[in-house]
Description:
The protein is mainly beta. The chain has a domain at 13-30 and 62-289: YVTN repeat-like/Quinoprotein amine dehydrogenase (Methylamine Dehydrogenase, Chain H, 7 Propeller), CATH 2.130.10. Helix content is 5%, strand content 35%. The chain has helices at residues 15-29, 336-339; strands spanning 4-6, 80-86, 89-97, 101-105, 111-114, 124-129, 137-141, 156-159, 167-168, 177-182, 190-194, 206-210, 218-221, 227-235, 238-251, 256-258, 264-268, 276-278, 291-295, 302-306, 312-316, 324-327, 341-344, 352-355, 359-362.
Amino acid sequence: xxxxIRAVRGTARLxxxxxxxxxxxxxxxxxTERERKPTEQVSPAPNAATQNIAAPAKKxxxxxxxxxxxxxxxxxxxxSLTASGIPGDLNTYYFGSTGGGVWKSTDGxxxxxxxxxxxxxxxxxxxxxxxxxxxxxxxGTGEAxxxxxxxxxxxxxxxxxxxxxxKNVGLRDTRAIGKLIxxxxxxxxxxxxxxxxxxxxxxxxxxxxxxxxxxxxEKVLYKDENTGGIDIAFDPHNPNILFASLWQTRRTPWSxxxxxxxxxxxxxxxxxxxxxxxxxxxxxxxPYGRIGVAAAANSDRVYxxxxxxxxxxxxxxxxxxxxxxxxxGRSIQQRAWYYMHIVADxxxxxxxxxxxxxxxxxxxxxxxxxx
Length: 371
C-alpha cells in the first residue's frame, strides 16, 4: 500500500530536493528555448583570498524574488540526494531518499506518496524522469555519498506508469550509483555513473549506457576495479556530447580514502562510445578526488567542482577544451568526498548552484556565491 504524507513544517531536511524541484521549474519554463546565448568571458580569479562567498548577487530573478527556502516534507523522508520534476508540469515531482525509497507529489509538494515500499531496497542514489515520456522514470539505487553507515542498492529500476509499478532492469552489482540521466528525446537511451562497491573492488562500475530501455547495458567508460563513475551531464543542446567524472575511492567502517590516479574528468562527442580524458589546459594538478560536473545553458560553458590540492570550481568557456579556476574558496569544497554537488541553471549560463554544508548560488559564472 502506498503511503501519503502531508507536507509539514518542522525538522525535515530536504533542501536538495526542494532546490532541484525549483530547477525543474526553470527547465519547464525553458523547454522551448533551445538557442545558444553568448557568454561573457571572465578572467580567472587570482587566488582564493579574492573569492567572496557572501558577495551580493548581481542578478535577481523576479519569478523567485519573494520565495524563501523552507521544509516541504514529508517529515519521514530522511536524507535525499536526488529529485526531479516534469517539463511543463508545475505540480508533479519525484525525489529519492537515502533510506526511504522514491516519493511523488502531484499537488506541488503539498502531499507526498511513497512509491517504493514493495521494492527490495530503499537507498536511492539518483532519479531521472524521461523528458520526452514523463511516465517513464529511472531510479539508480544505492547512494554514492559514502558515509560509514550507508545502505547499498541493487541496480537500476524503471517505471512505465509514473511510479505505480517498478521493474529492476539491471546493473545489480553496482551497489552505489552517483548519477543517472535520460536522453532528452529518446527514453530508451540512459547513462549511469556507477560508483561500485564502496567497501571493496568490483568490476561493475564506471559509466554505463543502454539504448534499449535497460534490456542490455554497455560499459562505455571504465578505469579499474577501484574507480567508479560519480557524475555525468549532457550538453544541453547536443545530447551526443557528454561530460563525466570518475572517482577512485575506498570506504572502511573507520576510514575513507578519496582520490588517486583513477579519478578524472572526461568528455565524449559521440554519445558515449568514445571518451577523452581532460587534462591540463587550466585544470589543477592531479591527483583528483571527487568531481562534480555540470553543463550550462550555453553549450560552451561547463563547470567542474574538483577535489584536489589546488581544487575548487573550474570553468570552461569553450566546451571543455580549456579551463580557468574561478573560485578556490574552501566553503564550496569542504568535506569534498561528500558534498561535491553542482547544478547549472538551464536558462542562465552564469547561474550555478553548489550544495555543500551550506547552499550556494552564483550569478556571475562562479566568481562569487551567496548562501
